[in-house]
Amino acid sequence: MNTVLTVDGVDRSFGERQVLKDVSFTVAAGRLTGFVGANGAGKTTTMRIILGVLAADAGTVTWRGEPLDRGIRQRFGYMPEERGLYPKMSVLEQIVYLGRLQGLGAAEARDRTMALLERLELAGRADDHVQKLSLGNQQRAQIAAALVHDPELLVLDEPFSGLDPLAVDNVVAVLRERAAAGAAVLFSSHQLDVVERLCDDLVIIADGTIRAAGDRAALREQYALPRYAIEVGADAGWLRDLPGVTLVDLDGRNAVFDLDSGSDQDVLRAALDRGPVHAFGPVRPSLAEIFREVVQ
Fold first, then answer.
1. β-strand 153-157 against 76-79: which pairing, if any?
2. How far apart are CA 69 and CA 73, in angstroms?
3. Where in the numbering of this chain does the ABC transporter domain appear (predicted)?
């Protein structure tokens, strides 16, 4: 895994209140990292420290092993949770302007802007003032603004807020394309179903501390219970009488159970002795279940 951004031991306080405590995690190129936590957990403060908007009280943030400076941060793209576009400028004019601030020539900035607006299904609103857009379209315009200079790192704070399901799918596809092209993407979201569908890696923060971080699939394995699902040819009620098995859910031929003792192979053999088995395997926890477990 090609780690590019490293947050190491970061602390931050506002007055007497410490909001970040020894925050450490990494972000890799070509991967989407979901950053989740409740309101006030420290996500936005961490992102602002990465972008240099805030300074850390302790700890370091490095890019490819080098301390961050203004030149490196110009290669980043940022979308804040608060809408920050000028309401009385047109979408096209505004994103071109922001591209120019990032060093693009006028023609290149316009070409990139139009390509992004087309990809984000916003081209028909290019000449509209931002204040005339719906909240969802304003959100897509902000995403275009963060992408226009083709950043190496995208830091997106609640990018799916205000988007309907079709718009979410559109933005997800765009972010996947950027990651596939080699960009590193760090995004926060309260929509855990979207995070679970989108992210390769996961960082969970609560009360200013990192509670879990790593590859999404590995975390699901790490926090998995000894829980299994089975589909058999006839009623599966016999499972409730099997030693070492606690039945969690039963719906005719389908059952979910916890294995308190013994082997899953023992259960499988018992099922096969009674007839055909159409499906059998472990049940992996959802992101929401992992989140609840680690923040308690």
1. parallel
2. 6
3. 5-232
Mean pLDDT in residue range 127-149: 92
Tens of pLDDT, residues 147-165: 999 999 999 999 998 889 9
Residues whose CB is less than 8 angstroms from the CB of residue 232 and which lie 6 or more positions away in sequence, other chains included: 253, 255, 271, 274, 275, 276, 277, 278
Beta strands at 32-36 and 201-206: parallel, antiparallel or unpaired: parallel
pLDDT digits (tens, 9 = 90+) for 164-186: 999 999 999 999 999 999 999 99
CA distances from 65 to 8, 68, 72, 240 (A): 11, 9, 12, 55
Q: Are 178 and 154 in contact (CB under 8 A)?
A: yes
Q: Give the 3-state DSSP-derived string for 122-143, with helices as H, strands as E and coil as C.
A: CHHHCCCEHHHCCHHHHHHHHH
Contact 205, 42 (CB under 8 A): yes
- Say which residue the tokens 């997800």 belong to: 172
Q: Which residues pair with 129 in a beta bridge?
A: 90
Q: What pTM was computed for the model? A: 0.85
CA–CA gap between residue 133 and residue 137 (Å, rounded) = 6
Find the angle CA(4)-CA(157)-CA(59) to the nearest 5 degrees. 50
Q: What is the DSSP string of 188-217?
A: E-S-HHHHHHH-SEEEEEETTEEEEEEEHH
**What's the pLDDT band for 117 if we cut at 50, 70, 90?**
very high
Joined together, the tokens standing for residue 181 give 């092209």
- Cα–Cα dist 110/126, whole Å: 11
